[in-house]
Structure formats: C-alpha cells, structure tokens
Amino acid sequence: MITGSQRVQTTAAPRRSVIHRPLRAALTAALATVFPAVASAARSATVSAAISAAISAVLLCATLLLAPAAHAAHAIAQYGEPKYPAGFKHFDYVNPDAPKGGTLVLANPSRLTSFDKFNPFTLRGNAAPGLELMFESLAVGSADEVASIYGLLADDIAVAPDGLSVTFRINPRARFSNGDPVTADDVKFSLDTLKSPQAAPQYASIFGEIKRAVVVDPRTVRFEFRERNRELPLLAGSMPVFSRKWGLKADGSRIPFDQLAFEKPIGSGPYLIESYDNGRNITFKRNPDYWGADLPVRVGMNNFDRIVYKLYADATARLEAFKAGEYDVLVEYIARNWVRRDVGKKFDSGELIKRVFPQHNGTGMQGFILNARRPLFQDVRVRKALDLALDFQWLNRQLFYSQYTRIDSYFANTEWQAKGLPSAGELALLEPWRDQLDPAVFGPLPKQPDTDPPGSLRANLLQARDLLQQAGWTYRDGALRNARGEPFRFEILDDSGSAASMEPIIATFTRNLQKLGITATFRVADYAVYQKRLDAFDFDVTTIRMPDVQVPGQEQINRFGSKAADTPGSDNAIGVKSPVVDAVLDALVHAQTREQLTDAAHALDRLLMHGYYVVPHWYSGTHRVAFRRGLAWPKTLPLYYGAEGWITSMWWHEDR
Fold first, then answer.
1. Collapsed DSSP state (helix, strand, coil) of residue 593
2. Helical (H) or strand (E) element with 500
3. How far apart are CA 6 and CA 42, in angstroms?
4. What is the C-alpha end-to-end distance of the chain, expressed in Å?
5. Whole-angstrom distance, CA of residue 104 vs CA of residue 499
6. β-bridge mates for residue 307, sequence order
7. Fewest beta carbons less than 10 Å away: which of 32, 117, 432, 600?
8. Interval 561-612: pLDDT, tens
9. pTM
10. Do the bridges between strand 210-217 and strand 240-241 make them parallel or antiparallel, or are there none, so unpaired?
11. How far apart are CA 100 and CA 60, in angstroms?
C-alpha cells in the first residue's frame, strides 16, 4: 500500500508523495529520464505533481554535496572523484545497443485519474503524467552512486573556491523542442520564474538560497548563493530549464505562467506531446531532432518511439485493463494483488510475465500522518498512543503475505538512520536545547510496537490507555473523553483511487482504536477534492509517502521546517513547528563534512521519531513488475531507482 509511480516505492499501495505536485513534476521532469529512481519516487501518490519527482530527483541524486575545490569539469562529486571519468561512453546500467522503436503504453503512474494542464510547476490543477520526458536540467546524477552529478545541458561545471557560486557552460548543441538554442538567458528565466509567486510556493523555498542567476555570456550562467551550502551547486544544476518563449503569444504578449494550461511546454527533453484526449490519455513521441541522444548521460536511454499514458478511474479498472492487454507494464505496490489478483490465463501462458527486481533505495517515510496543527494531536503522548494501536505484525501476516518490513526511521535502509544512543556529534546539536526537549530524546531510539510473542496487542493498548490518561483522556459514557467531556474522534482521509487498498488496513486500525474508546471514521474524497484538502492542510489523518533520498538535504526543510508548516501546498503536511528541528535542519544543509552531515541527519531522525508525528507503515526492498512479453531491460540494474522511470527510460522492445 504505498507507492505510486513517481516515488521510489517501498510499501504496499500507492500513496501521495509529500513533495508537492508541481515541484515534483518539475524536478522530476528534469531528472526523471536519467534518474529513474527519482522520477518514480516522485510520482508517488500525486503524480499530477511531477514535482515529487522533481524534488525527489533533486534529492535522490542531487541532495549530494559538492566538492569544495573550484575547477571546471564534466562532473563533480561530494567526496573524491565521480565514478565516471571524463570521456566515459555511457552509464554501466544501460544497454548502449538497445534497439529503438515501438510504443510503450502505461496506465496511471499514480492516483491521478485526469489532468487539466501541461505545466507541472504551478500549484493549481493536475498536470499530465509523463511531462518529465520534456524537461532537462544543466546536470544530472547517476543511479549507481549517490554523490555525483554529470553535465547534461551543461558541458562544463565549475564550483567557486569559496563555495558561494557555481558556473555552468551550456553545450552549444543544446536545443529546445522549437529548435532554439538553450541560452544562459533561458536558465536565468527559469530560475526567476520558479522563484516567483506564479510558480508553486515550494520552488521559492527550494531555490531560496540561490540569490540569483547571472548571465555571464550567452552560453555561461553563474548561480550565486546567499551563503556557503554544499548542496546548492547540485540544486542549481538540477533545476528544470524551459524556454522563455513558453507562453509567448504571436503578438508578443505573454500568458502569465500560472495560467499556462494546455500550451505545450518548450523544453529540451527527448519527447514531445503528440496528442491528448479529454484529460484522460496522452501520447508522447520521441523528438526526431533531439539534440542529446549521443551524450554519455543519454546513451542507451529513451528507446521507445512513443510513450502513451492511459488514465483509469480506479485501481480495479486499471488492473483489469492490464489483463485485457490495454497497456504493457504494471508496477504492483499491493502485496495481496501480486499474490492473489495478478494471475490468470495470460500469466499462465507467458503472455504476461511477473518479475521482482531488487533495489537499494532508502525507504523514505510512509504512514498515517497526524496533522499536528489539530489540537487533538498536539500532545506527543496522544500521538504515541495511536502508534501503539497499529498491529503491523497481524497486518503483515494476514494482508501482506509477510512481504514487508516495518519502517522505523525517516531514513530507514540508509546510513542516515539514527541508531542507539546519540553520538557526540548529535549531542553537540541537541544539548543547547535540552531544556526544551523530552529527556527521552537523549536516550535510545523508540522501537516500533511489536505484537509477536512475548509482545501482544493487548499490552500495547494498555500502554496506550495509560498515555492517553496522562494526557487528560479517560473513558466514560461510552467513549474516550477529555476534561470538557468531548469525545476523541477524528477522520482518516483518502482519495477514491486508493481507498480500496487502504480500506482493510484502516478498518483493522480503527477497530483497535475503538478498544481505547476512540472513534476514527474513514472519509473517501474525489481525487481533486482530496488534493485540495491536502494542499490546504484540511485533514486530521491521511496516508502520505515521503519520497526517499539517498542523501538528505534542502528538501528536508520543506518537509519539516517551521516556515513550510504555514505555506499551503508545502511538503510539511505534518505541521512540524519546532525551533530545535529548525536548528538541526540548518546544521544539515550547511554541513561541510560528511561527519557533520551524518550527525545532523541522525539528530533530525531522532527528533522526528521521538515526536511520533507519524504512525509508520512498511516497505519492501524490491520492485514488483508485471509486463507484456517482448519487453527487455539492461542486464545490470541501477542501485537507486524507481520502477516506472527505469522502465520508460531504459527498457526497449526485444523484437526491434
């Protein structure tokens, strides 16, 4: 229940990615093709927001910090040297001889069921899936290392010795889809537009530390930073670039950026929009004049002549359409579907094939998000009690066929996950705030409740009851009530596209809550209404997937920073507002060494886990993919990747 298509999925069903839609789209768009992990990770629950991908992408591969030395190069690395030297031919995880041709047909890459715009960078509306195929960035990361970026639109990168700027030289061959050369003015225009009020508010936050872009000459642009931050050169390089002519009318007037709808984007990516139908289907065709096909970072990629997205009304219709042969690939995120429903005659005959592919992505965080803006959830004892009411072991046995592992960190499955007692470096960050922190923060990390013997659900619920009583909630008159006699009740919000997969899980959770006297109701909303409520933080509890990152960075401020908590549509759906968290976030993004970054990430993880803001869900270390016979993929798999982005960028038709 957790993933969608844009995020690097690791749980059981498609969920909304915490990275806001537009930003996801943007960044996703920019790096999706070469950063499948990101793209996929971004599409997560709200693909309409390729944004997740964007950030995800920016994150996944970009959150990396750059080397301090200033020199012009084809690539830069956080530590040591990039894996691939100057003059490399292609990434190791592609097939440079993959045949080109054919059409790849896909279904909704997320819970998106319709679209009403081609602009993935604005807040309002739902962007079409696949727009990441049209946008590129100055540089991209590789999917088999976590701390390097390589030139794409740029053929040369130079970080200033003081770390306060980075300069990119644009490849003279780089062209937009209308044939115009990509210039430094276009790059500056892209940054200025994304930071403006006309773009989704997250962009101003993500790129806020970039003071300005300076046009040095038509082919050279310099990004200047407000202060030294090793992640900023990476973020600058990962920013999606689009033409100044996008939205320009024949008479010279311009359509405001936030009013762009079905005006086709002018990007530099390998695909163009060929056709679309009623906001339900869209076809991309490979640009025959694509400028970058022979670049080392593009060799072996973009092998399909056409990529088609068909959007279905719900998960059941989507699955039946796959079995009927209406599209080619199904990435399955629901364990019981994989075992019980992804079967039939076409699977038996070999026309449809099921494969499990290993991946090494971090898990990100997915779970029941408790909106801390609500008075009901502002007491940490209450939040901890709700965590105790989830019986993961029972769910894993009865519903998930024992295919999942419980998430126990915001950075699980990575080196950034806090463990044991705080290190000396963590204590240096936390000690100044000791009088504002629960003493437990300085002790061991919380362990997720366990109901396997000798543990039991009953023991967990008794502990939860005690915590609730300490917080002023007691059982009387048939319900758990506070001192004013108000009953403890809340709503769990979901959208119609994923309600079917979530319903048995939520039913089990709410039954356990009833034993405590808590009433939780399950509310299903139309996708558009659901998204609007999430953007306005108008919910009690919902399920969200925070896309994983291989190296934490600026995106964490958008997820947990106090300012983001008050910004509609931001990634801080939880509503975390803590000066301690803000201080640790500041240390994280300004870390100058790997050790400093590790200490800050561990301290952040420790604070968040002790805050019990989320009732964590679960993850899997594999991608489950069912596909039509005749599709093929490279023998060497990436290390960090999302299934959907990997498929669109690196698979091919065998019979070509």
1. coil
2. helix 499-514
3. 4
4. 35
5. 28
6. 104, 284
7. 432
8. 999 999 998 999 999 999 999 999 999 999 888 899 999 999 999 999 999 9
9. 0.78
10. unpaired
11. 28
